[in-house]
Design brief:
The protein is globular. By secondary structure, it is α+β, with helices and mostly antiparallel strands. The strands form two sheets. It has a five-stranded mixed sheet. The chain has helices at about 5-10, 95-100, 105-110, 125-140, 145-165, 175-190, 195-205, 210-220, 225-240, 245-250, 260-270, 275-280; strands spanning about 5, 20-25, 40, 45-50, 55, 60-65, 70, 75-80, 85-95, 120-125. The longest helix is centred in the middle third of the chain and has 22 residues, at about 145-165.
Length: about 280
């Protein structure tokens, strides 16, 4: 339904395999044939040093001002982007490229600012933070060796983690964050199967009560809230961008019948599925 773009497409090198890229915004060319909405198969870290950028990710609008780090994760729906007259850096990398050096996905899971863990996927930085990040960025821009790039990328990500934990109030432990991200991954894979909460908990080898406690600690929501939000996000995408009938969408999302799906959708969005779809008809 949505085109998933690669780094090579974004930088106008579609015939190459590109798994890591770093550049300054002012040096980047406008991507050819970039269609919105789209999804990425890579992580993107934007460091805006001057100017403003507007982003819409998973139906949430963000305005990114100077001295801000902004994070976009694989699979998120990217609806719109304004990035004229901005300066700064763009760091792009695929998960498998980063993990080649470490062979441990938990390293990525431990980075709390990735994978849209919190409501605001951005971080405002001060001059001290810039002094820590800029030398790493400069080394990454010059380096050619994949292993050295992967090591420097790890240092950059860990440095951002340090800045994030300094500036944010984090109530969850690293272990809880890892379990939460594993739960989120399971939800992404199975939200249309109408799984009970105990099925998710069993996959994580914990109880449903423990799962709820972990989710509460990480994002102050229940595990059921996370499942509900993922279902509603998929429903909005299908209603806006597909030609599927309401009955077909109902079936894809694992609901018993269209009437129940319509009540569920309206309860949580204040619009019926048809009303929501009509908002985007042209």
């Amino acid at each position: 339904m949505f085109k998933t773009i690669s780094i090579s497409s974004l930088i106008n090198q579609p015939d190459k395999d590109v798994f890591f890229w770093i550049d300054r915004f002012e040096d980047m060319e406008e991507p050819d044939n970039l269609v919105f909405p789209h999804k990425h198969n890579f992580y993107e870290i934007l460091w805006i040093t001057s100017g403003n950028s507007k982003q819409t990710i998973d139906y949430i609008d963000y305005e990114i001002k100077a001295d801000t780090l902004f994070f976009i994760s694989p699979g998120q729906l990217h609806l719109f982007e304004e990035w004229e007259d901005i300066k700064g850096y763009c760091v792009l990398f695929e998960e498998h490229y980063f993990l080649q050096l470490f062979q441990n996905k938990n390293i990525l899971f431990e980075l709390v600012y990735l994978d849209n863990l919190y409501a605001n996927p951005f971080l405002t930085i001060d001059n001290n933070a810039k002094l820590k990040l800029e030398p790493i960025i400069n080394l990454l821009r010059k380096e050619k060796s994949s292993q050295t790039i992967q090591a420097l990328l790890f240092i950059l990500l860990k440095q951002i983690q340090s800045l994030y934990t300094t500036n944010q109030i984090l109530t969850a432990s690293t272990h809880q964050v890892v379990l939460f991200k594993r739960f989120r991954s399971l939800v992404d894979e199975n939200f249309g199967k109408n799984w009970a909460l105990t099925q998710y908990a069993n996959q994580l080898n914990i109880t449903a009560h423990n799962l709820n406690s972990i989710v509460k600690s990480v994002c102050n929501k229940t595990a059921s809230d996370i499942i509900k939000e993922r279902i509603l996000l998929e429903a909005k995408q299908l209603l806006q961008f597909s030609d599927d009938t309401i009955a077909e969408i109902t079936n894809r999302l694992g609901f018993e019948d269209s009437s129940y799906f319509a009540r569920y959708f309206k309860k949580h969005t204040s619009a019926s599925p048809m009303e929501f779809r009509k908002q985007y008809l042209r």
